[in-house]
């Protein structure tokens, strides 16, 4: 049976999780604990040497990178539920939206998330404990991000990320004003990958995502939250409890 | 007939160009002149509002984003030459490599390229001319990059990009030591998209890409340069002549 290693249903981990739930594909879920840095443990780095979730194990094959996993599930495990438009143009539009999440939207939201939540986690460690954690991280850029989270991200970086978030939610809202779904006239991986980042932003980013400024974005997230597969996923897969920065 | 708007055969423009040549798909090529900022002209922004090449026009449809165009060509215009592995796992590996170009490898090489070549182009302009050019650029992050090219990129940014380039060519070289091609045991879009960035680096980055340090990378670029489609592309599509920074 397929095995998915992930955190709870948010951000990159949500992408393959929701894809599997929507497709109705059976899988065995393994939830890692980010608070104990389990994704940097030796046992998990034997599965994904980059120490990153999600990772899908399919027989003797390991597939990494959340967006790639989603397309792999469509390629290798098609089900009655198709999450890619059948026409090439719709599929290209879907890929432009998933690529945009991976190259732009997820990064700005992620930095603010790290600033707010990861900082606490790592500030509670002694210098020695922290250095041991950093030594276990295989990706150089991730080491830098953990250090920044502990020291505090520079204010100009946080300001720039907030500018990008404002641009991103406006871009989504404008497109969703004229389109029920993001690409190809159907619920697709474009919606799943963007929803994985945008869901719940009316709590964490209420000054940018609200009924007055982004009504179409909120219509779309509400509509997705009503889908049976989404409800089932949230009911069955626990979300991490994060404590905001003091 | 398909129309491709692009610069000469390098970087992102080379990806769909070489894909079309390899597939033997007929197309009409429109080469834009980067030296006159033709990609920011109103006529081209009517085709791609982001003012970026390449862009493919297929009947009444416009497809943008170089990697997305390559997959679109495989989806919509299959030919006797397949550039995607037939098996899902090989295809996933191909996508991890094309994604890595778009998110990592192309950016570090691009910054150094801008530092060396674009600086000259924009330093020759008066302040007024330069501001008019910047006003025509639709993407905020691109405006910032043009300003940095004129003012000079900060040294710590250049150092960090060089570190990433060294990491990138080592990663390619290590993988190519044990593999003829990057993914799926065949020449694929993974090779095309990486070759588009890596070709010629033994000139511009000779301290990193050379027979002693990256023999497998050089074996692979030489092998690709011997392909009939690659020779035909370089013979038919002129390359821009760039003058290095003084």
From TrEMBL, chains A, B:
Alphabetized SUPFAM superfamilies for the sequence: GST C-terminal domain-like, Thioredoxin-like
Keyword check for Isomerase: no
Name of this protein: Glutathione S-transferase family protein
Entry-linked PROSITE patterns: GST_CTER (PS50405), GST_NTER (PS50404)
Family: Belongs to the GST superfamily.
Recorded GO MF terms: transferase activity
Keywords: Transferase
């Amino acid at each position: 049976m397929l095995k998915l290693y992930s955190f709870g249903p948010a951000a990159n981990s949500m992408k393959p999780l929701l894809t599997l739930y929507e497709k109705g594909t059976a899988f065995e879920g393994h939830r890692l604990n980010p608070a104990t840095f389990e994704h940097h443990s030796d046992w998990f780095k034997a599965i994904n040497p980059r120490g990153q979730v999600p990772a899908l194990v399919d027989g003797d094959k390991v597939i990494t990178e959340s967006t790639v996993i989603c397309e792999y599930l469509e390629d290798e495990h098609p089900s009655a539920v198709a999450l890619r438009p059948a026409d090439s143009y719709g599929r290209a539009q879907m890929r432009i939206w998933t690529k945009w999440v991976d190259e732009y939207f997820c990064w700005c939201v992620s930095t603010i998330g790290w600033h707010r939540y990861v900082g606490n986690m790592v500030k509670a460690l002694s210098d020695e404990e922290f250095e041991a954690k950093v030594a276990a991280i295989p990706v150089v850029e991730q080491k830098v991000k953990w250090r920044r989270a502990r020291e505090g991200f520079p204010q100009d970086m946080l300001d720039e990320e907030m500018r990008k978030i404002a641009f991103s939610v406006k871009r989504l809202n404008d497109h969703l004003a004229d389109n029920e779904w993001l690409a190809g006239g159907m619920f697709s991986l474009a919606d799943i990958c963007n929803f994985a980042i945008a869901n719940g932003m009316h709590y964490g980013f209420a000054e940018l995502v609200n009924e007055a400024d982004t009504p179409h974005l909120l219509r779309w997230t509400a509509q997705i939250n009503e889908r049976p597969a989404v409800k089932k996923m949230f009911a069955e897969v626990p979300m991490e409890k994060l404590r905001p920065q003091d």
